[in-house]
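Quick one, T. Sequence first:
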Amino acid sequence: MNFNIITLGCKVNQYESQAMREDMLKNGFLLSDDRDRADITIVNSCTVTSVSDAKNRKILNRVRRENPDGIVILTGCMPQAFPEESENFSNCDIVLGNAKRAELVPSIYKFLEEKQKFVHITEHIGKGEKYENLSVSSLGEHTRAFIKIEDGCNRFCSYCIIPYARGRVRSKSLEDLKAELIQVAANGYREVVLVGINLSAYGLDEDFDLADAVECACSVDGIDRVRLGSIEPERMDKEMIARLAAQPKFCPQFHLSLQSGCDNTLKAMNRHYNCSEYAEIVTNLRNAFENSSMTTDVMVGFAGETEEDFNASLNFVKSIGFAKVHIFPYSRRKGTVADKAPNQIDPQIKEQRAKIMEQVCDETRREFLKDQVGLCESVLVERLRHGYLEGYTKNYTPVHINSEDTSLCGKIIDVKITKSFDDYCDAELV
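Structure tokens:
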């Protein structure tokens, strides 16, 4: 039997889909040549917003329509967060929660034998829950490997459903991480990105921390670059920063989640820092790393956000000078505190604020890229496209290199950055 996996959402979901893919292949299933048709279709869902749920259902409807006799499997965050909403499962034959990916193949065999819908969702038990030790050996055609090292979140931000979908903080052991990294390096990956649901909290449930994971990754022969996925400001103290800066392989790119540049809004969001503390962390990172880049997420139109609050956020974001910002209007999420909050913002006002914020962030993006011109940087080459090589510097500046030498793909080379544009830089081989 052949199969397809459709992945929605974050890098953690992508990693988990790869782990399921390898498990299926190991058990004799074949990857389908047709992206739209397969004997088995696995939908790995995201539930970060209500829009995500609607997208999940739309995909499930399409898969069932195009594969009326196929086996449709739903897994991921949506069934875990909302197990009682059976309408989400109407087009599914098998439904697995976030802690049951190891049951994927046995569930398929059970369905083939019994021909009955199978729903297996176990509620997260909180403190003491064990980390689901998935592992991967490759990541398709990517030049970098995303390695999940942490699951769960203890923060309970007022807008977020993820602690209910993912449970509390759990961490991969350093021994298991080292073994996985050795395998990934043996398969030719030069760069790894450590990812998690709340990556900064890695080791919070154990006696190690994120710096230990970075040091572990940097110690593996064949891995030349190590970078982090999205991190929360928590635990990014001077000691942590100093340990990261001591690793030559570590890439100085920090996606440091902000959400709002207004203290009133941060408090309403139940974020665990204020703007002053956030700015201090950014300063400490820039002092420790030469030519580092800061990227972030910013939400506009949160419940109760006044015009004054929005302008405060706008000015703070501008003052930091981010290299790139992901901007999104607040989306109400059933099951969260913020969904029931008064003074919800009109959708048109949200969109207006998002456009204003985008204009400011586009300018700081251009300024960051201008600052890269004239620098000599190392680039991991990813591919040849439109007559030039594409890749990223250590601080994740996207670069177009004036060369068509495909033998350089997958290699780290030195370039000089010659020109900047709105979203990338041109470079010449050194």
